[in-house]
Amino acid sequence: MTDVKLDAWMRELDGDYAALLDSIQAEGLDGLFFAEGKSNPFNALSIAADRTDDLTLGTRIALAFPRSPMLAAYVAWDLARYSEGRFALGLGTQVKAHNERRFDVKWEAPGPRLREAVLAIRHIWSVWQGEEPELDFDGEYYQFSLMTENFHPGPIDHPDIPIFVSALNSYNVHVAGEVCDGIHLHPFNSPEYLGEVMYPWLEEGAERGDRAVEDDIVVSASPFIITGPDDEAIAEKREAVRKRVAFYASTPSYRDVLEFHGWGDLGDGLHELSREGKWSEMAEHVPDEMLYDYAIEAHHDHIVDAVVSEYGDLADRIVLSTYGYPFGKTLTPA
Question: For residue 320, what pLDDT is reported?
């Protein structure tokens, strides 16, 4: 994976988005991925499709369960058509609380349901492209059987839209390997955990789908980045990332990543602090040794080389957050 691609990542539309898109292109970046955070990622990517020529555009990620696979299929089809094949659909589950309490969506079997959503979307696209005679998807969680001419968008020139899923646990990593074109890695990760734990899962999933990781699955990493133009700026960014590491380490979902590096007990303590609402105190319990298990630190002029050095042999794409790197600099690795 020596020819690693570098991507920008955003989670909200703020500031001068048009100027930021121009900067991202001027950097020579390969893609822009937009999260479903404070903004609708599909709206933002529609603008990007109009204002860019070569960037790969994708969601990283869009939430799978609050929208029907049919709605996801429509918006991805439109973006693939409008961007002339530059769009990649990234899907993720989010956690139970957000599904139930922020979106009022039933939470059930998230792994199997995500897998089925991917298969349903692919079936819908095959019908629109004329590869399947009729809409006939009968799954455990989704059923689709009606597609009239009035709502049939018809074939497009670039119908092979990649589908990525975000994955950290065993089941979803297997899903990525078995039925997806790529995997979006969570920032709370490490090269060691990816190589020793997640890659075997990914390979098992790929074998289940009669595929090969190297040939069929794009691995996209998004490490925590600590960077700045000088030591003072880096110190400030370091504390901001320490807070993020403390937050994720307090969540039981990331227990395996903690255990791998020997921080399980500390994670238990952070979880108790979170239950007590002592959020402001949590970062104080994250030592530098733990921080650097999950984050990469370097000055602006060296951060790209540092990130590629850590993940270049493991990932096909590496995401640089627009909140962690000052676009307007050259990002070409040495």
Answer: 86
Based on the domain organization, do 40 and 121 belong to the same domain? yes
Instruction: Note whether 315 and 2 are within 8 A (CB).
Output: no
Tell me the three state secondary structure of residue 220: strand
Q: What angle do CA 321, 78, 110 make, to 5 degrees?
A: 60
Contact residues for 143 (Cβ-Cβ < 8 A; gap 6+): 137
Q: How many CB atoms lie within 10 A of CB 242?
A: 22
Q: How many domains would you assign to the chain?
A: 2
Are residues 101 and 53 part of one domain?
yes
Instruction: Give just the sign of the alpha carbon dihedral 90, 93, 99, 105.
Output: positive
Residue ranges for the chain with pLDDT beneath 70 = 1-2, 322-334
- 245 and 124 assigned to the same domain: no
- Give the 3-state secondary structure of residue 184: strand
* Structural domain that includes position 54: 5-230+296-321
| Global confidence as pTM | 0.93
Euclidean distance between CA atoms 220 and 251, whole angstroms:
23
For residues 320 and 25, give the distance between their C-alpha atoms in angstroms, rounded to a whole number: 14
Q: Could you tell me if 7 and 220 are in contact, meaning their C-beta atoms sit under 8 angstroms apart?
A: yes
Strand pairing class (182-185; 218-221): parallel
